[in-house]
Amino acid sequence: MSEALQPEDVLRLSPVMPVVVIDDAAHAVQLARTLLAGGVKTIEITLRTPAALDAIRAIATEAPEMIVGAGTVLTADDLDAAIAAGARYALSPGGTSKLMKAARKQDIPFIPGVATASEVQRGLQLGYRCFKLFPAEQLGGVSAVKALAGPFPSIRFCPTGSITPEKAPGYLALDNVLCVGGSWIAPADKIRSGDWAGIEAAARQAAALR
Predict the structure, then answer these.
(1) Is the dihedral of CA 161, 131, 100, 86 positive or negative?
(2) Is 132 a catalytic residue?
(3) How many whole angstroms from its chain centre is CA 110?
(4) How far are the Cα atoms of 27, 92, 104, 182, 183 from residue 112, in angstroms, in the given order?
(5) Topology given in CATH for the domain delimited by 2-207
(6) Terminus-to-terminus CA distance in the chain, angstroms?
(7) Is-above-0.85 flag for pTM?
(8) Is the dihedral of CA 57, 59, 187, 144 positive or negative?
(9) Does 8 qualify as catalytic in the annotation?
């Protein structure tokens, strides 16, 4: 994989991976620099808005020290587009066999989403060892992730979904959790209003969780 970046490397970049929905790519570079100033080295730009790919491209070009990834990658075409824009890794809320097989042929880490033990087994069969557990809180939270360590001791997770700053430490205390996904660090309203001080403060708190 490019520059030897592996899925576990991606998930160890920050205790909290900022999950970002961005409406205006013009904010992307400032956002990346603000997160870096707060000690967060990565950002997941979700492919939920028309601005997402342009935001990834802007960060990759103008703030290359930030390791930018693409989230909400649902198809092989999404993955191709994210890579073309400069994404260094990609995540999906789920993981179809078609998408996971396509991702194995690419040169960036891909972290598929799972919600059940059966989905973990399907991912294992295709060579995956790191997964996004989504939606984490709705699936049972910390106790659910802890239970998965029994049958899958070698698997590592990034739980995402309704996790708050108060709940994050409980996940991060588990050996099978490398990071959590969090939308609270850089919510869309703070990005739109340019509350960079607030975002940097949240980033600093998140970076200190582990």
Answers:
(1) positive
(2) yes
(3) 10
(4) 27, 5, 11, 17, 18
(5) TIM Barrel (3.20.20)
(6) 26
(7) yes
(8) positive
(9) no
* Contacting residues for 161 by C-beta, under 8 A, at least 6 apart: 133, 134, 135, 136, 137, 138, 139, 181
From the list 8, 41, 44, 167, the catalytic residue is: 44
HSE-up of 110 (CA within 13 Å, CB side)? 31
Retrieve residue 80's tokens: 């191709």
Integer angstrom CA distances of residue 174 from 52, 66, 125, 133, 148: 32, 27, 24, 14, 11
Which pair of structure tokens corresponds to residue 55?
Answer: 């935001």
**Which residue of the set 3, 62, 65, 132 is catalytic?**
132
Residue in this structure with the two tokens 């909400």, named with its chain if needed: 72
Instruction: Show pLDDT as tens, one digit a residue, over the chain (210 residues).
Output: 345 799 999 999 999 999 999 999 999 999 999 999 999 999 999 999 999 999 999 999 999 999 999 999 999 999 999 999 999 999 999 999 999 999 999 999 999 999 999 999 999 999 999 999 999 999 999 999 999 999 999 999 999 999 999 999 999 999 999 999 999 999 999 999 999 999 999 999 999 998
